Every structure is written in structure tokens, then in C-alpha cells.
Amino acid sequence: MSGQVKSRKRVQEHGEVFTNEREVNAMLDMVRQETERIDSRFLEPACGDGNFLSEVLRRKLDVVDSRYRRSLPEWEKYAFIAVGSIYGVELLRDNTMACRKRLFGIVEGRYARVSKGGGNQTFLDAIAFVLERNILNGNALSLKAVNEHGQDTDEPIVFSEWSVVLGDKVKRRDFRLDEMLEGNVDKGQTRSLFAADNTPAVDWEYDEETKSFIPKPIREFPLASLYEIGDAK
Ligand SMILES: C[S@@+](CC[C@H](N)C(=O)[O-])C[C@H]1O[C@@H](n2cnc3c(N)ncnc32)[C@H](O)[C@@H]1O
Asked: Which GO terms describe its molecular function (predicted)?
């Protein structure tokens, strides 16, 4: 996004003022190590058209390029992990679509270079699919998905976790964002992930990766090849 404001109306109604590149980089430099760790997860709750997320992706892909450019399958696997770790919520549909498109364009451009034009369309389909699942049109305050007018629906925001295991096999697990942040209010559980009493409620589980209790996923998918993920619609 080159300009910081699209219209006065959008600023007044949605606080839409985009962050310029210099500020984005200065802020990301404060967590530079994380931006350069291929699998570190980033969630931006009002991501606009992706000024922060696109820079995070660029930094991660710089690492992927430097480590794996000599092996296309390795490059694909780690680029998939990089994209799969980036999440955004955005209220306005046009921004959401623009953000997905922008992130996709970054991967597509790098992939064309690294594959010297001999890339695999199924890899790009997988990237497009993950971006559809990770960059969501939703309300970061109510934690609900929104309709095309930006109004809340009854559906919670649901994010997918993507873990690459066993070569090119991907495990997908879906989680409700409200449960991840606050505990499941619908089921009468009010314990937060960050509550002082961290005794797990019935449907929480201990996560070795984060060394904390996380809610159980609402859906788990069978292992699938990275190259078939894009068919899973
Ligand atoms: C100040 S802009 C920042 C955009 C982007 N993060 C950046 O730095 O360039 C705020 C964005 O949040 C979106 N937004 C406003 N209210 C929101 C809400 N409740 N949930 C999700 N996004 C929201 C707006 O549409 C706008 O794109």
C-alpha cells in the first residue's frame, strides 16, 4: 500500500490508516529474531492489506531462500511453513482479499525465481488455500466472522494450525480464536490461557510446543500431502 489513507470515510468508520514501510520495518526490527524464524507464528488482528504481514513473509522467505534454494522440494516445504505461520484478521472484505493476494504474489514471485519457471502449480494452489484459511474476514473485537458488509455473523473466527510432519505430509488442526484467547465462554469455561490458576479445564490439552495448556481443536484433518492441500476445498 503506497498511500496511508484511502478515504476520509474509511478513516472515520474503520480507523483505516495504513502504516508506512519505514515504521513497519522499525517495529519488526524490535522482534527481528522472530521475523527470521521460519515457523514463528504471527497474528495481526487488524491487518489491513498486509503491510506488516507481507514484510514478515519477506523476511522469512529470505531465510528460506538462503538455506534451501538449491533443493526445490525443501524450498517448497519451508516456504509452506513460513506462509502457514502467518495469520491475519481484517474487517473489510476488500482489504482481506488484497492482503491474501499480496502475500500470494510474494510467494509466487520468489517461487518463479527459485524454480526458474519450472514450478509446480499444486504447490501454488496449496499456498492459495492456506492464505484463504489464515487471512480471515472477521471482527477482531467480537472474534466473529463477518459478512460482506463487515457485520458480525454467528460464526466464530476459526484458524488452522499447519504442521509439516513426515516429509511433505501436513497435519491440519482447527481452533476457535475465542477459545485460544479467553477460554470457551459457550461451554461456561471462563479460564484464560493466562489465568493465574492454570489447572486445565476438561477440554484443554497440554501443548509440548508452547509448554502451556491450549484448547482442544474443534476439528482435526487426516494427514495430507502438501501438494494435495489445495484440493481440499
Ligand atoms: C489503522 S489500520 C491498520 C492496517 C494495517 N495493520 C497497517 O498497519 O497498515 C486498521 C485496520 O483495521 C481494520 N479494522 C477496524 N476495526 C476492525 C475490527 N474490529 N476487526 C478487524 N479489523 C478491523 C480496518 O479496516 C483497517 O484495515
From this structure: methyltransferase activity
* Phi/psi of residue 219, nearest 5 degrees: -155, 140
pLDDT tens profile 91-123: 999 999 999 999 999 999 999 999 998 899 999
Whether 209 shows a pLDDT value over 80: the answer reads no
N-term to C-term CA, the chain:
30
Q: Is the CB of 42 under 6 A from ligand 1?
A: no
- The residue-averaged pLDDT of 56-64 equals 98
Measured in Å, residue 51 CA sits from the centre of ligand 1 at 11
47 CA distance to ligand 1 middle (Å): 6
Q: Judge whether 184 and 219 are in contact, CB under 8 Å.
A: no
pLDDT higher for 119 or 58?
A: 58
Length of the chain: 233
The residue among 107, 131, 132 whose CA lies nearest residue 119 is: 107
Name the grid cell of 14: 474503520
- Which DSSP helix (H) or strand (E) runs through 91? none
Q: Give 43 Cα–ligand 1 centroid separation in angstroms.
A: 13
- What does the alpha-carbon distance between residue 31 and residue 135 come to, in Å, rounded to a whole number? 21
- Three-state SS for 103? helix
* Exposure of 17 in the CB half-sphere (CA atoms within 13 A): 5
